[in-house]
Amino acid sequence: MVLSVIVPVFNEAETLSILIPRLSTSLKQVDWEVIFVDDGSTDASLDIIRKASALDRHIKLLSFSRNFGHQAAITAGLDFAEGDAVVVMDADLQDPPELLPKMLELYQEGYDVVSPRRVSREGETLVKRWTAKLFYRCMALMADKRLAAEVGDFRLFSRRAVLAIRSFREQHRFMRGLVAWLGLKEAILPFERQTRAAGETKYPMLKMLQFAWTAIASSSALPLRLSIGAGVILSCAGFVYLARVVYLALWTNVLVPGWASVVVLQCIFSGVILLALGLIGDYVARTYEEAKGRPLYVVTSVLNVSVPESGITRASILLEPDPRSIQLRKVLRAAR
Ligand code: UDP
Ligand code: MG
Fold it and tell me: For a substitution probing ligand 1, which of 203, 208, 299 has the most ligand atoms within 8 Å of its CB?
C-alpha cells in the first residue's frame, strides 16, 4: 500500500529541514509519497523542497502562483495524491509524524477517516485556546453537530474518502466541515499537540476570525435566520414600549420621557438593521464569488508529480514545458 502525506507550506523554511528527516523515519514501514504544496512562499521554502525532491523521488512538489490559503493547498494536495490512504499534516511539526503508524493501524481496521484529537495544546496562548473552544461550541450549535471537537486538519483519509472530498468544488471551503458532512466511519485518536518547531504562526488573530466566519458561513445559513429572530424580538419590544407611552399619555399626568430614549432606541434598531443587512450582503457576496466559478488554485510548477488522467475540475494547472521535450522538438525541426 502507498501512503500519501500532504503538507501545505507557507514560509516554513525553518521547519522543513526538521520535518523532512522526521517524516522519512516515521514512514519506514510503507511505500510513501510526500506532497509539499507551496502556497506562494516568499522565503527559501521552495528551494528546500526542490532540493529534497531532486534527491528523493518520494518527495513531490506542487507550487502555487501565489498565496491561495491553507484550505486551497490541502485541496490541491488531495487532488494530486495517489496513495491508498492520505494524511494531511502541517509543516510546523505541531502534528507529530510519529503518530502516522498508529493512524495507519486504524485505517487498516477499516476506518475511512482517522482524526487525531488535541487533548492538550502546548505553547498556544490562552486566548487561542479559549477562542478555539468557543469556535467548536459555535460550530456545533450553528453549523454541524457532527463536527468533531478539537480535531484540526491533521487527518488520515481512505482512498474513497479522498474521492468523495474531491467532488466538493466550492470556493469558500472549510475542509473539516466537508468531512463532517460526509459522515464516513471515523476513528478518534487522542494526542498531545506540540509547540511549533520554529518560525511563527501563519494564522494571526484576524485571519483566524475570518477563517472561523468562513467555516460558519460555508456550513450554515443559521446566522441569516437569527436576524429574523432578533427582528421579531425587537419589534415586540417596540410595541410594548409604544403601549406604555400611550398609557402614560392618556391615563396619567406623567410626561412622556424625552428624546434620550428615542435616540437610544433609534441607535439600537438601526444597528440591528445594518447588522442584518451586512450579514445578507456577506452571503450574497459569497454566492456571487461562487457563481463566477473561478479556479480554486493555480499550480505553476510541479516536481515528481503526474497530473491525474481523469483531470481536475475548477483548478488551473499551468505546467512549465518539459525541457527534454523542447530539446526533442528542436532536434526534429533541425532534421526537417
Ligand atoms: N499555511 C498555508 N497557507 C497559509 C497559511 C498557512 O499553507 O496561508 C500552512 C502553514 O505553512 C502550516 C499550516 O498551513 O503548514 C498551518 O499553519 P500554522 O501552523 O501557521 O497555523 P496554526 O497551527 O498556528 O493554527
Ligand atoms: Mg501550526
Answer: 203
Ligand 1 centre and the CA of 90: distance in Å?
A: 7
- Domain span at residue 281 reads 223-292
User: How many residues appear in the chain?
Assistant: 336
Task: Output the average pLDDT for the chain.
Answer: 92
Cell numbers 450549535: residue: 141
The whole-angstrom separation of Cα 222 and Cα 230 is 12
For residues 82 and 179, membership in a common domain is answered with yes
- CATH code where residue 70 lies: 3.90.550.10
User: What total of structural domains would you count in the chain?
Assistant: 2
Statement to judge: residues 101 and 41 lie in one domain? yes
The verdict on the CB of residue 75 being under 6 Å from ligand 1 is no
Asked if pLDDT for residue 256 goes beyond 70, the answer is no
- Other Cβ atoms less than 10 A from the Cβ of 113: the count is 23
Ligand 1 lined by 8 (C-beta under 6 Å): yes
Rounded Cα–Cα distance for residues 297 and 315 (Å)? 5
Q: Supply the pTM of this predicted model.
A: 0.90
> Of the residues 70, 88, 195, which should be mutated to test ligand 1's pocket, given the most ligand atoms within 8 Å of the CB?
70
Least reliable range by pLDDT among 1-15, 206-220, 276-290, 310-324: 310-324
Same structural domain, 113 and 94: yes
90 CA: nearest ligand 1 atom: 15
Residue 257 shares a structural domain with residue 315 = no
Residues 270 and 163 in one domain: no
Report how far ligand 1's centroid is from the alpha carbon of 231 (Å): 39
Task: Assess contact for 189 and 114: CB atoms under 8 A.
Answer: yes
